[in-house]
Amino acid sequence: MSLFIEKETDTDFSFDEEALAKEVTDYAIEHEGFPFEAEINLTLTDNDGIHAINKEYRDIDAPTDVLSFPMLSYESAGDFSKLEDNYDDNFNPDTGEIMLGDIIISVDKVKEQAKSYGHSEKREYAFLILHSMLHLFGYDHMTPEEAAIMEGKQTEILNEMNILR
Questions:
Q1: CB-based burial of residue 43 (10 Å sphere; 0-12 exposed, 13-18 middle, 19+ buried)?
Q2: Which CA distances in Å does 39 have to 98, 102, 143, 158, 163?
Q3: In this predicted structure, what is the pLDDT of residue 10?
Q4: Over the chain (165 residues), what is each successive 10-residue block's mean pLDDT?
Q5: Number of separate helices (H) and strands (E) present in the chain
Q6: What is residue 86's predicted lDDT score, i.e. its pLDDT?
Q7: C-beta separation of 7 from 44 below 8 A
């Protein structure tokens, strides 16, 4: 798996954010049984940077904690059976990896929300990456039923990884 990280802002976390991002993305891929080598882009930005992206792509004039831009379409969340049908559209010809998508995280929101929720920045950062990975696998939280599935997976995976509140 290739994880490309771009830092648009200082992170000054007390943990290795690149190693944790790799650990969470690898674990999510394994947990969900994603059958291909994947390529993921992670951008770490500040509130101003994510605000601009949120306004441009979602027409929401405010910063958010994380944005996910999946490159793949699924018939149902977590169903990877049809991905190879669109080989030319989904795979990077140079690496053979499937282009899973982009994750954009506001470092400012990681810090704010960790303090607000009373847990570590490490836990908040891992949660946001995992949340976004589930979006890249087709999961969503637009209905109560979808939210229950996604939240259950988030809790299960973070507990298995021993990244607790």
A1: buried
A2: 6, 9, 29, 22, 24
A3: 94
A4: 96 96 98 94 98 95 96 89 72 90 98 96 98 97 95 96 91
A5: 6, 4
A6: 63
A7: yes
Residue with tokens 């997976």: 153
Query: Quick check: 35 and 80 in contact, CB under 8 A?
Result: yes
The amino acid occupying position 95 is T
Contact 139, 149 (CB under 8 A): yes
Would the pTM count as exceeding 0.85? yes
User: pLDDT at position 90, please?
Assistant: 82
Q: Sheet holding 2-7: strands in order across? A: 2-7, 38-45, 98-106, 66-70
